Amino acid sequence: MVAVSASDETIRTAELLSIERMVNSLPVFADYDEARMKATSVTVLDLFEKEDGLDTLFGMIHDSLPERLYETAYALACDVAASDGLLQETELQLLAEIRYQLDINRLHGAAIELSARARHMTL
User: What confidence score (pLDDT) does residue 10 get?
Assistant: First the structure.
């Protein structure tokens, strides 16, 4: 989630609020220590500064995230990207890479993306 928010070099308030809301309310984060959020964010931002940082980030994700949660992780990343109503090219590229790295089926990915877009539409 943090990586998608930072991918366009601008972390927007809507994206931060979306991340906070998800961490505070979704069952997948029930046992998550919120104090880790700042350290996690710093790690992600530091990795973005390194040449092979994205590869390292995906390695960390593969090491720590059970495969059964890959689609959940992709859905949360899509929600963050859609939360501010603007999808920058860099966000779209990172989402495509996440989809590839997590081996998300294209049809499932499209459904997840469409549902994120629908949840964040405005009048």
Answer: 80
